[in-house]
Design a protein that fits this description.
Elements lengths: L1 H26 L13 E4 L9 E4 L4 E6 L16 E6 L8 E2 L1 E2 L10 E8 L5 E7 L6 E8 L4 E8 L7 E8 L2 E6 L6 H10 L4 E7 L2 E9 L2 E6 L5 E6 L4 E7 L5 E8 L3 E7 L6 E6 L3 H4 L9 E7 L7 E8 L7 E7 L2 E6 L5 E4 L1
Parallel strand pairs: 6-10
Antiparallel strand pairs: 1-25, 2-3, 3-4, 4-5, 7-8, 8-9, 9-10, 11-12, 12-13, 13-14, 15-16, 16-17, 17-18, 19-20, 20-21, 21-22, 23-24, 24-25
Length: about 350
């Protein structure tokens, strides 16, 4: 009798695991193939071959690019090279990428940059906040940008027990920022467990020198985060749920969900066009190809533009899509005056004139 109960229980567990794995494949769009959408005036940027996971652009047209991310479960073509921050001037006719020098006092050998965010102070000083993963932990590094010297001056490292598995940040004041925590666990196998069971324990945090608090939760995997031009709303990409959450920001920094925009593709980083308020999203059309990388059948790329965000039916259009033959694993798209930079988790960077 005991054996029968044990076998029945084992069968039920295996059936549940099988069901969850099938659901996981569906959430990852494992069967999706990409239909090509490629603008005419595009070319790859020389010197950016090891990823450009996040991009943030100053009003002047200077673009900051985080490169060389080493992330659990993701491919990496230069595992022994530290990460870098690159700069591009999008006002140039043929913009080139230049690695920024970092001042003494910062351990560049352990630099593993992920999400980035620019903050411009009242005196027009530019600060760059960078999510860093030294030893696969999470910190936020603060740098001051010296434009003439084309360098970053290291100022401070922020650490906190709640700031784990940090993916992206958006800075809204001096040492005040929202951060996405893409997973509850930090161990790779527990992360897989969390993803397969779709535990929805991912969250958004708010940091200030006074303290850190959870301001939104219940995400499958909160990823990219950005803010509307008037700073009244915060947009959060839930990559595994394939949608964008539109959140209202309150005076105490808490967030309240207003709406969810379903997209049907796995949304990574978000940027906002300051002139129009449109959201630009770097997306993974088939994330299973990211998790199980095959150079013969690589992950594709997709860039979406979301217009009329607050209308009943926002307009979603595909600006770029590729099956991986040109660009693999797109994570971000950022625009400036009709030009667009498309970055990737571990691959190359594409520049287009729309």
């Amino acid at each position: 009798m005991g054996k029968l109960v044990a076998l029945t229980l084992l069968g039920a567990i295996l059936a549940l695991i099988g069901e969850r794995l099938l659901e996981f494949r569906e959430r990852m769009n494992a069967s999706r193939e990409v239909e090509s959408v490629e603008p005419q005036n595009c070319h790859l940027i020389e010197g950016l071959e090891n990823g450009s996971e996040d991009i943030d652009i100053l009003p002047s047209g200077l673009a900051f690019i985080s490169s060389g991310l080493k992330y659990l479960g993701m491919p990496n073509f230069a595992p022994d090279e530290p990460g870098k921050i690159f700069l591009m001037d999008l006002n140039e006719q043929n913009p080139r990428a230049q690695a920024l020098k970092i001042s003494d006092g910062f351990d560049e050998e352990l630099f593993n940059p992920h999400g980035i965010s620019i903050f411009i102070d009242k005196d027009h000083t530019v600060y760059l906040y960078v999510v860093n993963h030294p030893h696969m932990k999470s910190t936020v590094e603060i740098f001051k940008f010296e434009e003439q010297e084309r360098s970053l001056v290291y100022l401070k490292t922020i650490e906190h027990e709640l700031l784990t598995s940090v993916n992206d940040i958006v800075v809204l004041g001096p040492e005040q920022f929202y951060a996405t925590r893409d997973h509850y666990f930090t161990n790779y196998f527990l992360v897989l467990f969390e993803m397969i069971l779709d535990l929805r324990w991912s969250s958004v945090l708010f940091y200030s020198p006074i303290g850190v608090k959870v301001v939104a939760k219940g995400f499958s995997s909160a990823n990219g985060i950005t803010v509307s031009p008037d700073q009244k709303y915060v947009y959060v990409a839930d990559v595994a749920a394939k949608n964008i959450h539109v959140m209202e920001k309150h005076d105490n920094w808490d967030l309240t969900q207003l709406k969810v925009i379903p997209l049907g593709t796995l949304v990574d980083n978000l940027t906002v066009d300051p002139a129009t308020g449109d959201i630009w999203a770097g997306c993974h059309p088939n994330a299973m190809k990211l998790i199980i990388y095959n150079a013969e059948d690589p992950p594709g790329s997709e860039v979406l533009r979301i217009q009329n965000i607050f209308s009943e039916k926002p307009r979603v259009s595909t600006v770029y899509a590729n099956n991986g033959s040109v660009l693999q694993g797109t994570s971000v798209a950022s625009t400036y005056h009709g030009k667009i930079l498309i970055g990737t988790v571990f691959h190359k960077t594409l520049y287009c004139e729309l």
